[in-house]
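User: Okay, second chain of the day. Same drill as before: sequence in, structure tokens out.
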Amino acid sequence: MRILHSWGDLNPYLPPAERMPAQSSVSMPLNVAMTEAVDVAALYRPRDRFAYKGDFGHGLLAAGSPGKAGAAVLAARAALRSGLGLLTVATAPDNRVILQTAVPEAMVADGPLPQRPFADYAAVGVGPGFGLDQAAALRLDTLLQRAGTAALPVVLDADALTLLAQNPGLAERLSALAGSVCTPHYGELRRLVGPWQSAADRMQKQQAFSNRYGTVVVGKGAYTFITFPQRPALLNSTGNAGMATAGSGDVLTGIILGLLTQGYGPAEAAVAGVYLHGWAGDKAAVRVGEAALVAGDIVAALPTAFMAWAARTL
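Assistant: Same drill. Structure tokens below.
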């Protein structure tokens, strides 16, 4: 990892409006480093020749309210391409036919809270197209309670993050989980931590959220900024502007869920997941261009990304 020692080092990775004079009297808000390919390569776990699907875990994806089956489809496809052994998608009954047609490798449970014991799963992903009404908030509360009781790690995105912001008590559930990853874009991050006045302010508020709730926070954007509880923060070096498109975050949720389900820790899953997501997006942009890139193109490039990870050629 390359340590960024000063604002002069950090400025190229910040939005222009947030850049600071290289000799600014404002001190660096926290320790920050840049993730490099060698760091991600070191996280890879080779597969045992005699493994079977149960060795790679059973993931639960709670996603897709009526009219938002696409979010569930994208996240499910990404999770399956990321190596988990089994996947159940808990979704609105209206979405069953869509999911079982578009993602035949996944199992589908009607409703966002499956009857199956949570102890049968290895990790949970929640949020893409989940819903934002009070009933959704109650479902999320129950899901987080059940995941905490079963000691499961959880990745939260999209609607789940908005519900956390709207219902502060829900965020307290994160501390009881066996690790968690929150993946907000800037709009969702503002709802979670409040508005910021500068890069230093934003970074400090994100770090404070990580520390308070014991969660990894993936602040999505150019040079995605990742904070960890009581650890130095990281910037990600992959990705492009074409990935600022509907469904891109759903794909990232699926990747991180896939890695958590296989036993990667929340920090490992976040760092590797963000890097691979961006790497796949870069390959997709070469093929279709940034303007025409859609989230499905990122999913299509995931096999190449995972092969490169296995071969240490990222």
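The mean pLDDT is 96.

User: Thanks, on to the next one.
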